[in-house]
Structures
1.
Amino acid sequence: MMRRVLSTTAAFAVAALLTGAAPASAQEGHGGPIPGRVGWSFAGTFGRFDTAQLQRGFQVYKEVCSACHSMKLVAFRNLAQDGGPDFSAAQVKALAATYQVKDGPNDAGEMFERPGRPADAFPPPFPNDQAAAAANGGKAPPDFSVIAKARTFSRGSLYFLTDWLPLIGYSEQGPDYIHALINGYEEAPKDFSVPDGGHYNKYYPGHIIAMPPPITDGQVTYAKNDAGQPVVPETVDQYGKDVAAFLMWTAEPHMMDRKALGFRVILFLIILSGLLYYVKKKVWADVGGEVHGLQPELHKAF
Amino acid sequence: MATTSATAPGSRDGSSQDGSRRDFLFLATGAGLAVGAASVTWPFVASMAPDADTIAAGAPIDVDLTPIQDGQIVNVFWRGKLIFVRKLTGKEVTDMQAVPLSAMIDPAAFPTRVKNGHDQWLIVYGNCTHLGCVPIGHQGNFEGWACPCHGSQFDAVGRVRHGPAPINLPIPPYAFETDTKIRIGEGGKEAA
Amino acid sequence: MSGTASTYVPKSRVAKWFEARLPIAGLVHSSFIAYPVPRNLNYFWTFGAILAAFLGIQIVTGVWLAMHYEPSATGAFNSVEKIMRDVNYGWLLRYAHANGASMFFVAVYVHMFRALYYGSYKAPREVLYILGVIIYLLMMATAFLGYTLPWGQMSFWGATVITNILAAIPVVGDTIQTLLWGGYSVGNPTVNRFFSLHYLLPWMIAGVVVLHVWALHVTGQNNPAGIPIKSGKDAVPFTPYATVKDVFATCVFMILFSWFLFFQPNYLGHADNYIAANPAVTPAHIVPEWYFLPFYAILRAVPSKLGGVILMFSAVIILAFAPWLDWSRVRSCNYRPIYRQFFWVFIGATFLLGWLGSQPPEGGYVIASQICTAYYFAHFLLVMPLCGLFETPKALPASILESVTGPGKQVSGSGMPAGAAAAPTTKG
């Protein structure tokens, strides 16, 4: 039976390849080159966020992206929670106080502004979506809270067969796309007309993106190490990696907890399954042994 | 279900050494199932506790005292709880200082109800200590509050003077920032 | 709940007193302890228990999520994100519920595969089988309603597309659609009532599951040989033999579930659903959840709105007619050499339909969908009855025991206590 299942599956995989895989290539589906894979510290079964990288990514967000992109679901306090950029509570309090937050109404019925508190969410750069759209050529810049989970791309129509597997799986399409997009600006090909207010980006679906190149080499100055040397290069490529990692954290702030708990749960279940297998074997020994469907005699015709 | 029943055939087994190994296997598996089941319940219980947002929202609040007149009671909310801010009149202060402890259900001297040097200001939680209704101000026989639900009465500094409420209205953590501004949520053990 | 008379004898006085007034212990005993199970069941028969476990997981995680969820067009997306971010273990509950739904369907598809392969739909199990089809329909409705609740882009546009399907119904379609929406488009009233219905349907599933189990215990289980229990030696008591096997198989299945839950929690979902619903922008590739893909491919195989809708619903409803479409006297495909080949083609066509459903509806994909759809229906309407008429099945084993051991061999152990298997023997 098992052999038959396997051979049938294989036959249909081949049939699927023949009937449709060719026209469904990523070129057609996504309209551009496939974003490259970055060696993220948080990928894989034991992946962990790189605290220093998240702090740099936050710096890029704060100094560059936040001028247009809101992050409404993330609060200042989140920056101090476990498994994140790991700022201290005092740093977060000081940071929050540098923002003005709208509050109210007060006793006179009026809205007022006050310094931010750790419990406040990041104040958006525009009061509402309409204002954001009006200030940005008609299209509101997307919110960044969960954007790393909201973006993906297709590498071809059969990768779904392997992308979920341990070791060879792939689930970092979101940050890879963000990193690629930031680095994807280039001259439009000659036969490609770019409308006013649009910009050519080879990774953006359709290639015409409203956002101008958001950042340039050296625009953000990172903290130096003790010897006064830069820790990482101040390039668009590095900014892209750092901010993509930061956005992965904002989208999935409990990722490290999740993976750590998952490892323990699966280990526990494997051990328990092993014990249960022997319990079952012992129990069934009383009636002449187990039956599991793989025994050839079950499929013999008498 | 499975563990208890799975253990049953063990006793039928012949050799005692084999039997004890088998018993150990059944016991270990049963223990594993029990530990697993117990662990699964924890996230469900934990998820019912106040979430991170609710906890963080309990930040201290500032209350400006300047607009409050003598004898006025102002409602403010902190952590979703009602708090009375009351400016006592001179007569009320004198009256309250004169009440003998023996006349109280939950004896508390006047200085324990207000901050030192701010005799005029009473800050108390606004829910009756009986079953949580909101007592109505300037009612009852003690210059304070009367609860509409079950008839408890409190005096001008929130001390219970008539049952069924068992204890005085509790005082939230607060501190005077200046003479005209208090911060509720700081200055006590409950500070966030 | 069983055709078998209970052999349960209460021991203590309290138990006797209670049993005389409500014989629930006897019911449980006859259904889950003394109930005779064919001894040749393979692991495909553990999926009933796995499904029961997932119904439980979905209901419990769902009830807990409902404590934090806010069913409104403005609040739904943010409340789900609040669960993911701020609620203690909220991410665990939500990912368990989302991936649990997918695992529920994995298990139900294996369960349905088993029923079709081993002929479990054939007499006397028609009612048992149709109750299963009803559960499957309810599961699909529940899953669809649940997927709209996070109110992301896929939720919103999935709700729009599916409710527009109903508008294809002649005469009353528009009215039904408006009643479902509670407005002139998918909006706040829609998400509110979908939440209500999403909370209701699982309890209906649980009710039909009770009937399903009841029917099962009247007819007894089918088995890989497809022949009835003839003597006590053909069967073993449910507990401990089937229970321990079920618990083991469930535990193994939980490893797969945990892998998705903890390491690939968004693999089976869609990235677009992390964008809040926006009635002005439709996502570039709108596809349903993976478990609906074969039916989605059938819907798109026909270039007519009403035709596609009729075909799609027929694809599910036709399952319920299998007991009368299959004219073979032999149940199990193990003994049906010709039909077995067709059956695998059917499984292949269904998988291919699933894959085609995820591809854009153009060119070769549509043609391939049409071919597979044609086979899907031909399998039920032509292959099933004709194979039954013309196929020469292999000789069946004399008994279940013999199918396990081979002819003439003996096994140790007694199997069922004498007489316990009486009822299913006569009926199978």
2.
Amino acid sequence: MSNEIEAIKDPGLPAHVHRRADTDPKAAAKAERQVAILFLLSALGTITLIASYIFIPQDAFIFFPVLGDTNAHQLFLGLGMAASLFFIGMGAIHWAKTLMPDEEVIIQRHEFRSEDEDRADLIATAKAGAAAAGLGRRSLIKRSLGLSLGLVGLSPLILLRDLGPLPGDELKKTSWKAGTRLVTDPGDRPIRAEDLEVGAVAQTLPEVGEGVHRKLSDIGKDAVLLIRLRPEEFNLDAERLSWTHEGIIAFSKICSHMGCAVALYEQQTKHLLCPCHQSTFDVTRAAKVIFGPSARPLPQLAITVDSEGYLIAKQPFTEPVGPSFWERSS
Amino acid sequence: MTASERIAGTVANYVDERTGAAKWMKKNLNKVFPDHWSFLLGEIALYSFIILLLSGTFLTFWFDPSQREVIYEGAYEPLEGLKMSAAYASTLHISFEIRGGLLMRQIHHWAALIFMAAIVVHLMRVYFTGAFRKPREFNWIIGIGLLTLGIVEGFLGYSLPDDLLSGTGIRIAEAIIQALPVVGSYLAFFAFGGAFPGEAFIPRIYTVHVLLLPGAFLALITIHLMLVWYQKHTQYPGPGRTEKNVVGYPLFPVYMAKAGGFFFIVFGVTAFLGAVASINPIWLYGPYTPGQISAGSQPDWYMGWLDGLVRMSPPLESHVFGHTISWNILIPGLIVPGILFTGMALYPFIESWMTGDKREHHLLDRPRNAPNRTALGVMSLTFMLIALINGGNDIIAITFDLTINQIMWFSRIGIFVLPPLAFVITKRLCLSLQRADRDLVLHGRETGRLVMMPHGEFVEVHEPISPQKAWLLTQHEQNPPLALEESDLRGVRRPGVLKNKLRARLSKAHAVAIPKVTADDLKEIEHH
């Protein structure tokens, strides 16, 4: 193509244009003063920093138009630090740009490929080395070395085994059992049906004995959301309807997608929305997924009331709660 | 001779007498660096890394990386008496009781955001100018490694305070691990020391965040810089600049002063942001508990695209022989990012395979002169941008009064439609710009001066452009596509026909160009 045709010629590096400070001593002196002022501003910044550290109390607040109420201690400490650093940089660059030589310099590159002779030598050396080691001929050594190198990679894996226990059926079960009372979170108070008005939502956990410590890993599986609708608003089969109590329905609060807490309830549409990835569940249809990436409804917890009228679980969850995993069967 | 000249000479003499490095040092102090603003992007990344090391070290003096439960009794009254992890409590302590602690936390977080942004923009500069070509493929791969590690390091870093927002992020990471076929739940239990969240994860990622990954960064950055040093920097094309030379300023003193000064400017600007711009106010989020969440949960920006991909995924899950495969997590969370990053890492080799070009390149391309590459880059960016937009769909929905469903459907369709569209448009734009270059060289610059000819016609006066400009617009190579015959001279089909066909097609697409102006063209036009 056009490569064989005569191309436009490279006119070469343009002639150097001198700066004012190169020719005019007055301009050079001015530039020097400017650099000095910038360095002095930096020093002033450090002094501001020290003064703010010592004299401004940590709980002093100050109002600034854009920032609003701001902690004066942090603000002036930061501004002082910013100035002390920024102006050193500005000074150095101004110095380089106005007073240091700005004449462009040309150096030559070398090709990275070595001389043919050196390359031939290297290749010969490499070949000779490979031949001397004799791996090609001594297949017994080659194979046993391959075996031992392969096995040696296993030892870190073995040694890391105690990082954690095996999952067992931990992912499949929760603390809910038949008869476990639902208690408020926070507060740990048992709940009666009449405590919840129609349209209300409550976050609950299984009741634990007095002084028993709740582990976060239990909350991560046990959190349950109660929602009260009018019973006629449900669109459930007979079994699922029997899992509700007087319009109160209970779902695992742990998203069936990636385990976030499904906390946004929209009263008008009766939709539950997960704030992480916007999986949307229809409460009236047993938390069926109507939008978003989740592939499964939120597991429903069957509830009823005990002899004292407090809400209890009728039975444990019938499926694992939370995000999917390989051993999950449905 | 001034005092400073005498000292410089003495130091040089002292060092040489003990190392014999005079020749080497002379060469390197005189090393020439080409000047261009876009060469500062990588420097910003480097300086942010230094700022991260310094501010991070400060934070470790008070941070307690433990998930042991404590009752808070600190200066921040709204959380008084609450149960929380020691990690969260010590982050509150740094923020409210250590003088300058909040400032350092904010500087550290801002520096992390700037670090990642600088890496991404630096990568774009390297890509669009073709700086990754031979001999710089290694450095490209190291760069992709640094980008990947940066994402992980950033994620681990903002997870450490164990607040409600970051804990939710860890929960999502756990769900991704748990979704891996066969080994998922085992790996999750090993990583977390049992069921999520456990008490082991924060201390473990702390070691990774402050020791393992910074060590890997230091090693990779050192190799990255040594290669830049040894291979010498690329330069933009222009008069007097060739593949065989470097035009610029010597390391000592000009470049040293500029680069050193620039470090202080980056640090100063980061400190300014830390002083005035609140970031990650963890005391507002509260301590992490898996049963709670706040609306509008957003990761840091460099994770946003990943979150956006996960959000837009359709609800796909397979149940086979009593096992579950979560495509809705695996595809957006691992498979697509894996393909993207592998493709990106291999791109220098793919391009050289397409063009058959195995020569060294030290002069950068103007992006318009590599339309295919530029279009591919814009296509990838469009993909990432849509994913990122969807990552903030809840915030965007509230801000612009849209529904989440609208944005989600826009993203789901747009992620397939818009990137190819961006490719086509960009390629056309590049070719148009080439055409404009051609016109400029042939007919000169439009002056805006209208002249009335004797016969009444109005014409605009064109002024020829300078020889320097004409050179800049015509210096690039225009190579023909690879000629890959399907059969050899005797008419026998070559092996690997399909592969060759694909290669020939790609090579042809890559070689599309508007012919650049030659000296002959100019001569011809003078005759008219």
3.
Amino acid sequence: MKKILPILAAILFSVNIQSQEINLSSLLIPKELTKHANAVVKENYTEVTIDAIDLMYVKKKRTITILNKLGNKEVDTYVHYNNDTKVTKLSAKIYNSLGVEIKKFSKSKFIDISAVDGGTLYSDSRVKYIDYTPTSYPYTVVFECEYKTSSTGFIPSWHPITSFLVSVQKSEFKINNPKNFEIRTKEINFKDFPIKKISEESIHYLAENIPALKHERNTLLFTDLMPNLLVAMNHFTLKKVSGKATDWKEFGTWMYSKLFINKTTLDEETINKIKSLTEGIEHDIEKAKIVYKYVQNKTRYISVQVGIGGWEPISADEVDKLGYGDCKGLTNYTKALLEIADVEAYHTLVYANKNRDIDKDFTSIQGNHMILNIPNNGKDIWLECTSQNTPFGFLGDFTDDRDVLVITPEGGIIKRTPAYKNETNIQTTKATISITEEGNVSANVEILSKGIQYDNKFHIETKSKDDLKKHYKSNIWDYNNNLEVNSINIINDKENISFKEELNVTIKDYATKTDNELLFRLNVFNKNSFIPKRYRTRKLPLKIDRGYKDIDEYTFTIPTSYKITQLPQKKELQTKFGHYTIELKKINEKSILYSKSILIKEGTYTKEDYKLYRKFRKSIAKQESLRIALQKQ
Amino acid sequence: MKNLFILFTLLITFKSFSQEIEFGEVSNQELKETFHSIDSSANAAYLYKKRRTYYQYNQSKGFMLITEIHNRIKIYNKEGFDKATFKIRTFKTSGNKEKVLSVKGYSFNIENDKIKKTKLKKEHRFKEEVSDNHDIVKIVFPDVKEGTIIDLKYVFNSPFEQNIDEINFQHNIPVNKLDITVEYPEYYNFKKISKGYYSVPVTSTKKRGSITFTSKTRRGGGINTAVRTSFQSSTVDYTRHVDKYQASNIPAISEKEPYVYSIQNYRGGIKYELSSTKFPNSRPRYYTTSWEDVSKKIYSFKGFGNEINKTNYYKEDLNSLIAKATKSTEKVGLIFQFVKSKVKWNGNYGKYTQEGVKKAYKNGSGNVADINLMLTSMLRQAGLNANPVLVSSKTNGIPLHPTLDGFNYVITIVQFSNNSYALLDATEPYSTPNVLPIRALNWNGRKVTKEGHSGWVNLKSPKHSLEERTIKATIDSDGTINGLFIKKEKMLNALLSRNKFNNVNKEDIISKLEEKYDFEIENLKIANQHKLGSTLTQMLKFSSDNLVEEINNKLYVNPFLFLTSSTNPFKSNKREFPVDYITPWKDVNKISIKIPEGYEVESIPEQLAIGLPENQGFFKFIVVKQGLNIKVSAILQFNSSMIAPTYYQTLKDFYSKTIAKQNEKIVLIKK
């Protein structure tokens, strides 16, 4: 026995050495994969085995070489789990640049913490990770992990490219389906990438040698640029609840019957309250407005990630008692109250924040947020139930202009939320500005905002006077030194969704005095100096996320001892990205009218267009800091 | 009659002082309040903040630390809703556990002119197991709206009786009434350390307390007697120290000001640190008394002095490293760089080792103490006069009284025969002798020698952190400016820049600079990125078409060109804590501008020299005309690393003048 052991160890050791020579030395990475790269995924292997409707095994092996300090965040040596998921195998090994193992983490060396973020109250989500301080670069990490789960509602999808600035030598994805369950897949953005389908019969893909890509601003979302394989089963289990979904209709029926039904009961007192509030009101919309206001006054948003896969709402009853809930709880609560008032309304799943559609052609569990749909005889009304301030029926940029899934008892329906486009998002700034002999400014300003521009600012309504003053001084008009806000009046017209700010301000030493001139910038209150970043060679398409229009009209009164001599000519810039005009008119000897209008159109443009767009914005920025000189009389 | 009147007033004052705030009862008037009467910007306020911390004796567990909390919060608007969620962290070890008990709460609202009271229930409480060592108890109040008042009471039970939680007087919302009591038996001796820029005087009294012990005796069990158990109880009397902190209308502390490193340091409060214990029938145990004592104590800990004495693990490597070095400065340089490259910082602070030097050396990573105690040891081994220096990190604040917690970081000092010295921190790859990273640049350090003697060391370098910028530019007749830009950085500036840019590739640096200065770069060179002893130098050729403004046939140019600052960083009209620059600093601009053919200079800004009181800083600005060239030179210098709040307005005005001056234009006119 004593003799055999060292031999065995020697054999193992030599095997090890051999495989390291092939895989783990950082020095052998092809040059095209290290260009722009902070890390190289040498191998990323995911194997999913579906053993039963409620039993799935996942095996992952990821070998990544971190080339420099910035690559550390790509290590990804962690695994998430919860009450349904059991991690069966877990290890991480660290190799130096020559491929020699320098550290090893066994399962017990992983740190186990709650994966609840700051805003969440309760969740069973946990994470195991390692805490490793790299001692030199490059280094390689081999991370292996296996887990089994009873939830097959979320089959891992395949993302061969996980981040910008990371190249991929090899990424492989395989699904074993020994029992021949019906599994659907959808390939997204595969065509521009070197991806091979290994077998026609099974789901097995391979991507090789993808150089690192650099992020560029003002472009499409990462998910819209990168390849992704969606996977879903027709029969699945989610948190011990079985489901069937071949299309959205069926999926919706399942979701309704398993997750939403019987969640809308409320006590007698609340029912009576709603009934008396809506009594005698004929129109559904009017009733819905009353109910929405009631919800906004009663509740607040608190994240609670429990229930089926994060999708089962806490019951209306509960929310009524607590006075708070997450998006599902509050949406469901609003629905329950509307039910009492005989207004038809449905839970709706959506991807919130970044504009992303629910994939209408691929049925699977999707979305990250819930809103409420009131069909209103074909004229859909949408309610965001997590905000206490949002006007009735207003979605804002959080959920506008995208495909969503409406869950009715008869099944799921894909609908599109309304869009706030270009001129709809208008801000009009009117000001009367008088300039004193000393060069000080005193002005009355009125700003009216609609659409997404309303959305961008209506939240300031809740700020206190002092904070508001700071907001104008430090955020809105930080380019005006010595600005003081003397009075503020804010009118938030929720009915018409328009936001009006009326201010009186003074700016000391605004104009520069020379011996015989007084110089000042014309755009006092809405200077738009945005210039897109310069790229020597742009690689990604240009995307303007949100169109808008700004109109500025200022009437200047000049001090008595100065005269207007020469005014700049009217200037117009017209491009496919929008237009810009600036015009000055002498009203009389002592006053000037400044009018400016800027329209930026949303849209996706080619990468070649990027340069033109930059030029356009640069010319605008120049006009926006235009100054004039008044002559001493 | 006169006496009676005095008695009467006495009674009244007594009453108003001791007026009890009843838990679960709020007034209509308080509920109807829509904004805070003193601070209208407050989103919420503590109407009442009560804490009572005391000791309770348990015969099996000994003394336990009990803290009773009563918080009453008024919520004025939606931004104050987060104040209706409480997160209480509890600590646990294998045998001991902190507990949150007896949680009671109500939220109050006005409904139809009547007070509606909603009870806090079990379903409003959540417990999150964060890690093996700590949990978080979360309490979320129901029925919270604008105007709601919430009342919360709970008891925090801790077996870690030596650690009284820090007391904060000041919060990010105003406190209308503060009532804090700390009671401790005579067996404990605490040092009370105040911190921040708001203080509340203490009223200390002594009261009597007693502990009743019950003991069990078994007697008998002999041939003729049955076993009998009898209970005796004895009482031990002791003195209780009672400290009261009571205050009204404590202002909120603003969190969004520039040049703040850690707002927690400026928040008024008190810390109790144990200095000794003396229990009946046992010898006294001293924890801390003086800084001398603190230093000695730290040195004697296993994870400190002992770790410095270990030498075997590196001996061979060290010998070969310094084999050829003759001068002591040469040895210091070699060893400093060697430790930096051999052991990487894992991000953890600490005055005691985490891994132990030996293991850290082997694994190549460790905490601050692992690294710098190893450094000290190697320097000593090489025959140098090296000692550890205890530091209170920037986030640890400035301790006013000697305590063990006053230090949480350690660096190294080497002293040379000519009285010069070098402060070293090997956790920071780009630090150089006497240029420490920001985290260690706080207050003073305490040098501790082998013998346990200690003394203060000034951590801040007497030299200013420098940024020197030179521009040689030419204006073309079409208004474009081309030129050469050179930036030199020394001291802390160099450290920070190396840290920020050494890992970024050139292409991205170019892109960042182009964005910052709005010009186009032709050629960028960076010198001495890794030569830490030399000046970090960045050189580039630029061109820009938006630095010159044409109005009525005249050209207007900012004397600082693209380096012009146009906004004052200080916007607030008041500031109650200092402006922290971390180190003295100096910005130098040397600019020469060649004007285009066919133009002449119409006017240039006048020179300016202004200073801050007590030689804390100055700004000098001169523009001169030399034929077709305009020469600008300016210095902005701060000799103090910290500007006291009393000078805030002066500082703000000073900045405003420097900004106004650099925005005055050079005016060129066609000949």
4.
Amino acid sequence: MVFLNLPLMVRARGPDEFWRKRRIFKLAAHYRSRTRNVYTFAIRSVHRALAYATKGRKLKKLDMAQLWTTRVEAGCQQYGVSLDAFKEGLARSDILLNKKILSELAIWEPRSFEALVNISRERAAVEGYPDIKRRSAFNQVYGLNNLKLD
Amino acid sequence: MSLLTQSMRQLLRHTTQRATLCGAMRALSLAPTLQQQNKPATIDVSAIAKEHQKECQTVCERINQQVAKSEQGRLFAVVHLCGKQFKITPGDIILVEGYWPPTIGDEISLDKVLLAGARDFTLIGRPILEAGLVTVKATIIEKTLTHTKTHFKKKRRKQYMRINFQRSPNTMIRINSIELTRPLDSNAEPEAEPSKRLF
């Protein structure tokens, strides 16, 4: 195309058309069908992909948080404690482990996790946290065997 | 409501048979009798405290013995570093994201140990273990930048499109050792004044 008159000059978008398109095609190289070869399709899908990638970086963090919650909850369920009661008990005992670490402990260090559950349950029972049905060993005999529940 | 009044009336009628009104109320409640034993405990608290302390001591001694014979195996620890918590064990490489001053080759000790454990015991800090109990040594081995992240925003039919590129610094740290430096003391008093360590 040769742009000789004014209206066509306006439409011309510069001499670097090849390079501009190549930048997009490089990103689209692994796409399937015409999104790989046809510029109009390629640029659409590349833009969409980049936007998704930007959003995905935030979503990944939320997803991980959700996954950790699920894992810790499953860990608590083994011992019949709800997640809220467990976390509340830990917080009141000044144990400030986060969800990531608790989930890792639940998976890889089951005995440490059990100890944490026992501590939390004991604290909740002593302070009369509503979710805890079990009576505290602390209330029966003050200070004795306070970690030996069952 | 009517049910309640009925039961209350019945209750009042039988009050004479019962010892007290209170006792009758207790009979009405649904909770098992076990929870209602409110008689005062006649247990010598000091004796129990001693027994409890003894139990603590035996636990501590057993841990100390195990550590003295170095049978405890590989220790793991949970440390707090740059606002994040990491579960580490010797030989691990952890990644600190974002700006962090230490340079390559620096040897540091990670002091905020929230939890340390081995095969047979776990030390849980409230919220961190006391200073000098567990030492975690680490070396900074690499400082790099992340891959290029593309920050791309676009609104359809609104002539709005923004693209930015960003790379943030990353630091790799190798954990050299995690050690129990001094024996556990069951009688240890918490520090009288708040520690002067700066974190």
